[in-house]
Each structure stands twice: as structure tokens, then as C-alpha cells.
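Because showing beats explaining, we think one record worth quoting, sequence and C-alpha cells together, and here it is:
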Amino acid sequence: MKSFASDNNSGVHPQIMEALIKANDGHALGYGDDPWTEEATRKVKEQFARPCEALFVFNGTGSNTMALQMMTRPYHIIFCADTAHIAVDECGAPGKATGCFMRTIPTPDGKLTPELLKPFMTNFGVEHHSQPGAVYISQCTELGTVYTPQEICALTTFAHEYGLLVHMDGARISNAAAALEVSLDEISGACGVDTLTLGGTKNGLMGAECVVVFNQNLIKEARYARKQACQLASKMRYISCQFTAFLTDDLWLKCAQRANAMAQRLYEALSAMPDVEFTQPVESNQLFFIMPREKEDKLQEHYHFYFWNEAIGEMRLVTSFDTTEEDIDRFIACLSAIS
């Protein structure tokens, strides 16, 4: 039985596994000096109109830590939503690595806006106060919502006017692009973000992310930041080869479209149940809702899922690239049988 707890629980796409097997051929220079990494770097850069650097890493926490290290000093403030991954799910790693103060901002939908940030644009140049330094956003957000290009452009314009840099955690950026029917670039680099985590693990890769650096002033620091963040793989070809397959023939898009479509199918079935109340719009592959707690507890006897807000019994379900219609139908049948 497949899990709806997280897209991290899904398997590896067959084409990714095939790429890994092909890369496992003889010896190759380590640390990225290999033809697989050269090809993957080219494939990543082709996705974006602006010049950029592509640096492959192991995981999301490491990619966020690396990017934020590049753009801040320990006396800076990093602004993020109160639901942000760096504030809730990374055990304080970015804060420890950067030394920065994490200023979390309450949001109803996981999205930051210039209006929410503006009250904190104070104390510039005052040595007694931490200095505004960076803005962290997620695409998709931790609540499954999606930033439009207009919303991102407004944020980056605002941040840059105040001298702040912007990092986008794109662990699920493929799902956002699929939902909006735009390219990866149209909701990241083209909107003026300074760095991007181009996510892969949640969308069919075995375990690989890529830090894309658009801000040319940060590129000199990038490789050192990756090494200090413990994200420089010695056998890099096994990370980078996954991205070549991922970005060939729009595999990233097909996987994300599948996950999103299955989320919509699940949403439609759950919406027909009178005791289910959604707490966020379903815009990607994540669903947030509440129903009677006794039903949630019984459901957990059959399916593992996470409670997002224990106080109100809000649960989260996530679909993946390998979720099928049959998986959805079995889940709904199981839930319907629970009295």
C-alpha cells in the first residue's frame, strides 16, 4: 500500500534509476570533474534565461543552508513565513550555519508579501540591531499554495529595493510550474530571485537537489559555501546524472503533472464527504483538511500521514509521481468504510 504522508516516501522513477545504472560504469574523477556533471550542468542552465551557476547537492536542508550562507553574515536577519521549512523542519540548521536571526512572519497561506515584510524594514545601519539581510520563500509553500510570477516579482523587487537578497526553496517547484503551466524559469530566475533550490528528491529522484545561483556577485562564494555545508559529493556523477534524466524530454514536468492530477482526484473525492473541511486551497500535490478526530485516528490504523496542526486536527496528504488512480480509490474506500 502506498503512503500519502510525503512525496519523500515515493520510489525512484525508472528513468532516473536507469541513469544511475548507466553512470555506474568504471571510474570517473570525483567532486564533479566528470562528464555526467558537465552534461547535467548544461541541462540545468538551459532551463533559465539568465546566466547562472548550477551546483549539485545531497538534500534540501543542505541546499538551503548553503544558499543562505552565501548571501548573509551572522549579524543579518533572514525573513520567512512562520510555516517555512527552514523555521520548522530543519532543526535550526540554517540558523546554526549562518548565525542569523530567523524572523518568522505569520501568514494565512504560507506566502510572504511586501506588505507583510514592510513593518520589519527598520534599524538599517543601527549597530545594536540585527540587520535585514535575506528573504526565504518556498515554491510550492509548506501549505501547498503556489506563488504566481507576479507575486514573486513583487517580493524580489521589494527585497532588492531594501538591499535584501532572496532565496527560493524549490523543493516542489516542478509542481508549481505544472500547476501554473509555466516554465521553471518563469517562477524563479525570471522573477529576480538570487538563488534557487531546484528540487528533485520529491519528484522522482533518488536523492538530489541543485542550487542555482543567479546573482553573479554570489558565484565566487558558491563553491566554498557548498563545501562548508558538507554538500560536495565525492562521487558527484551519481547525483548529477539524475538531473540529466530529470530534465530530458520534460520528465520533471510529467512527474509533477501526475502528482498534481492525483491530488485533484483525491480532492474531488474528499470534497464530496460532508465531514471533510479543507483548510487550504489545493493548488499542487498537497492537501490540508480536517475531519472528525475519531475518523482520523482510525484512518491512521491503515494509512500513515502527518498532522499539520494537532490543535485543530489538521492533517496533510501528499500525492507523488507514482500515485495511481487505484491508490486514490483504495484510500477513499478505506475512509468511507470508517464510521
Notes: The chain has two domains: 15-246, 251-337. The first helix runs from residue 14 to 23. The mean pLDDT is 95. DSSP finds 13 helices and eleven strands in the chain.
